């Protein structure tokens, strides 16, 4: 009997999902959903349940086309940004207008109730319903080590720049926490920086705040990148230059203490990496510690999810 898992990459705007079988993604199951992150608690939880049901429907159809009529679901793995209690499945994201309504809610318990109530879904699981949660950056990092930019390295640092600043430090396939200058949580988002924490500066809101400081009013990073690409001497490019410089200073600290073989970027802001590469690399030695951007970040997160089951 075929054994599958549903992997979900939960973001503030969209949720990407796919079914993984034998460490391989079933391509036709890859789908993007509205996160509905600014809705109420019931709406957010119901949306997660809908995604699980939809993925089951899609994979059932795909496997049937392959001549496979029976399959079991080993579990559901969700990559969530922090702050989050991953062991218990409780979100502590607040004041971002993203998932505020599920602050302190045990998402795992809420979903398990819905699954138990729906026999059509429950029957695909084994004796127990397994729902696991992991930091989205950590799942991404594990996946990069399997087939991405970290495949040729034993020691690397991953940074996902988007709604927030996610991070993971990997050494010989294991996540590093509380060693080599790495915080006990393995995450740097809440480490002090300037007048706040790292997450305040190296995230979408941080980049857009830098733009406002230059009197550039844009609604997203993509718009800012278009302005910068249209004129390399523009104020928009100056914003990316400053972003890269500040980020480089942060990374230089971990290059010194953790000594990664490579630094790998993911997340939406990494699509504009070339706009801040130069100033970032001035703060570190790119020959000693190369900086790379993930080629297939979403695939890495999906494959990384298999490590939690």
Automatic annotation (TrEMBL):
Protein's UniProt name: Glucokinase
Gene3D superfamilies (alphabetical): 3.30.420.40
Family: Belongs to the ROK (NagC/XylR) family.
InterPro entries reported for this sequence: ATPase_NBD, ROK
Superkingdom classification of source: Bacteria
Organism annotation: Salipaludibacillus neizhouensis
């Amino acid at each position: 009997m075929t054994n599958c898992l549903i992997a979900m990459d939960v973001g503030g705007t969209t949720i990407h999902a796919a079914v993984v079988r034998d460490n391989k993604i079933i391509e036709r199951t890859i789908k993007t959903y509205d996160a509905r992150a600014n809705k109420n608690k019931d709406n957010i939880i119901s949306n997660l349940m809908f995604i699980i049901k939809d993925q089951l429907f899609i994979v059932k159809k795909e496997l049937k086309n392959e001549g496979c009529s029976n399959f079991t679901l080993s579990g559901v793995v969700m990559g969530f940004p922090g702050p989050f209690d991953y062991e218990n499945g409780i979100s502590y994201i607040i004041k971002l207008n993203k998932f505020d309504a599920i602050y302190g809610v045990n998402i795992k318990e809420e979903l398990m109730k819905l699954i138990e109530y729906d026999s059509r879904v429950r029957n695909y699981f084994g004796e127990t319903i397994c729902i696991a949660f992991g930091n989205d950056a950590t799942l991404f990092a594990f996946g990069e080590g399997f087939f991405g930019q970290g495949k040729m390295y034993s020691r690397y640092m991953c940074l996902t720049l988007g709604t927030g600043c996610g991070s993971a430090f990997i050494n010989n396939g294991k996540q590093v926490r509380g060693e080599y200058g790495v915080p006990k949580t393995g995450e740097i988002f809440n480490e002090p920086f300037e007048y706040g924490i790292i997450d305040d500066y190296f995230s979408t809101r941080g980049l857009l705040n830098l733009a406002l400081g230059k009197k550039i009013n844009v609604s997203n990073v993509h718009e800012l990148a278009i302005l910068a690409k249209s004129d390399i001497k523009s104020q928009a490019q100056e914003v990316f230059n400053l972003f890269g410089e500040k980020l480089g200073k942060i990374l230089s600290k971990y290059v010194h203490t953790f000594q990664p073989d490579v630094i790998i970027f993911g997340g939406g802001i990494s699509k504009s990496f070339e706009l801040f590469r130069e100033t970032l690399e001035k703060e570190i030695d790119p020959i000693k510690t190369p900086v790379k951007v993930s080629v297939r970040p979403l695939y890495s997160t999906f494959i990384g999810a298999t490590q939690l089951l």
